[in-house]
Amino acid sequence: MVFIVKITADDGTVIELGKAEQEENNQGNCLTDVNIHLDTIDNDAKQKSSAMLAKIEVFGKIYEESNSKTMYKSLFDWAKSLEKNQWYRTVDIEIKDDGGEETFRKYHFEKVFVVDYKEFYGKNNDMKDNHFKLFMTQKENTFKTIETY
């Protein structure tokens, strides 16, 4: 599968993961996995609950020779931002077939913020490559704005 993740701030700033790396280098798409989890907050619920969250995990490789080094810095800066007007972003995810030709699924999430962002470097990490993990969730009470195609 080929993954493209587009993260858009209210001021129009865009972080795009997946597409640019594929076009810029011979390494292929930097994204390796995308997990989308619709989570009922109370796991002991006796009936369908409206208290739900969308949780999104994005995993990818960090290419040292990539022209997209600013992309990794942009993710880091968004994750550490303490400015309230920078917290929430719109996230669009496109999942394509292995050839990148046919779209399998698209998702649209509004009011998403970073829960955790991790970068792993060195030869002793589990994946044996430099990589990152971005864990995001959607702001409370915005669950109904999720769209999928």
Q: How would you concisely characterize the structure shown here?
A:
The protein has 149 residues and is mainly β. It contains 3 helices and 8 strands; from the N terminus they run ββαββααββββ. Strands 1, 2, 3, 4, 5, 6, 7 and 8 form an 8-stranded antiparallel β-sheet that branches.
Give a verbal description of the structure.
- This protein is mainly beta.
- It has a single domain, classed as Roll (Pnp Oxidase, Chain A).
- The protein has 3 helices and 8 strands; from the N terminus they run ββαββααββββ.
- The protein has helices at 19-24, 69-80, 84-87; strands at 2-8, 14-17, 31-40, 52-61, 89-96, 103-120, 131-138, 147-148.
- Strands 1, 2, 3, 4, 5, 6, 7 and 8 form an 8-stranded antiparallel β-sheet that branches.
- The longest helix is centred in the middle third of the chain and has 12 residues, at 69-80.
- The protein is globular, with a radius of gyration of 16 Å.
- The mean pLDDT is 86.
Tell me the CATH topology: Pnp Oxidase, Chain A
CATH class: Mainly Beta
- Give start-end ranges of low-pLDDT stretches: none
Overall radius of gyration: 16 Å
Number of strands: 8
Order of helices and strands: EEHEEHHEEEE
How are the elements arranged and paired?
Elements: E1 2-8, E2 14-17, H1 19-24, E3 31-40, E4 52-61, H2 69-80, H3 84-87, E5 89-96, E6 103-120, E7 131-138, E8 147-148
Antiparallel strand pairs: 1-2, 1-5, 3-4, 4-7, 5-6, 6-7, 6-8
List keywords for this structure.
149 residues; mainly beta; Pnp Oxidase, Chain A
